[in-house]
Amino acid sequence: MCQQDLLHAFLKGLPKCEHHVHLEGCMSPELIFQLAKRNGISLPDPAVQPAFESVETLSTRYEHFSSLDDFLHFYFEGMAVLCTEQDFADLAWSYFEIAHADGVHHAEVFFDPQVHLDRGIPYETIVGGFSEGCKRAERVLGLSTRLILCFVRHLPVASAKSVYDQLINAQHFESGVVHGLGWSSSEVGPPKDMFRDIYALAREKNIPLTAHAGEEGDPTYISTALELGATRIDHGIRLVEDEELMQRIARQGTLLTVCPLSNVRLRCVKSVSEVPIRKFLEAGVKFSINSDDPAYFGGYILDNYCAVQDAHNLSIPEWRTIAENSVQESWIEDSRKAELLEKIDVHVKKHLTLSV
């Protein structure tokens, strides 16, 4: 077995934390057609949208997104088949099964309730289903999980505020059903600080905050997110364009949740080799590697790890740093962090022993 194959085997077993995956982005073409049939929902007419002719044609179309907005069109189409609490639970479980096989031990997953509410799906149905999927993963697979409610930037702030109020009224943060807030969707166009007031309210309640920034938008999107209270930045690859801000991020220990295959599929970069993995390592910037919307972008977390290895040829100590930073910056209790760090230590030492 060649050295690169050995490293791929090492990566498969390396205990992982995933911080940036949208449960709706795990809606595979197979599951879309399955749930459409279950719920009696008509998919778009193939005469108008040829991609929906079959599972195969839809899968092929996902390989050719021209932009973030092009992807989001299909992303929101796919959500339309989710109707019942069981649908949402099944979608979450479909992700956790694959993540577990890829070596994920802790997963912090996004969900986008506004889009479902606009379709008439009750908030309780959405959260109840996704929460049940998380509980099943913890019970059956031994994962720890965190559910993060994500606001979407293409809808009005009033829509996000309505969702926030439902979260607070249901006491879902206090009861540990929802563990944090984020924002996503179209980056360039809407005001950078559109969720300023909501984030201020959340900060008063000590709700952990993250934000999609610096994917398509320049580094000022990142600095604005930090100003509003985000303690984690999702994507953040354009941070390298601002040396001073990069030094600040490194100094603060702010985690970037980098999604290499997503960056390529959405044409933010031409190849994984352009994702600034080494620059972040050299600057001391903490980051984790994630799958974003894996059913649409051609790869779950292990695919992303291996793609980074093929492009950047990282060493085992560098992978250890990435894995340990992923644990340290997770939104979990210290006792769970200690468990995961020990698992990483055992795996690294085992691999180094076998390599001698």
Structural class call reads alpha/beta
Could you state the order of secondary-structure elements as H and E?
Answer: HEHHHHEHHEHEHEHEHEHHEHHHH
Please give the alpha-carbon distance between the first and last residues. Answer: 14 Å
Q: Report on the biggest sheet.
A: 4 strands, parallel
Please mark out the parts with pLDDT under 50 across 5 or more consecutive residues, or reply none. Answer: none
What is the alpha-carbon Rg in Å? 19 Å
Beta-strand portion reads: 5-15%
Number of helices, counting only DSSP H or I runs of 4 residues or more: 17
Lateral arrangement of strands in the main beta sheet: 1-2-3-4
Helix content: 40-55%
The shape, in one word, is globular
SSE layout and pairings?
Elements (H helix, E strand, L loop, with lengths): L2 H11 L2 E7 L6 H11 L15 H7 L6 H12 L5 H17 L2 E8 L1 H6 L4 H19 L2 E9 L4 H13 L10 E5 L11 H9 L5 E4 L5 H9 L4 E4 L7 H10 L2 E4 L1 H6 L11 H7 L3 E3 L4 H4 L3 H12 L3 H13 L5 H22 L1
Helix pairs in contact: 1-15, 5-7, 16-17
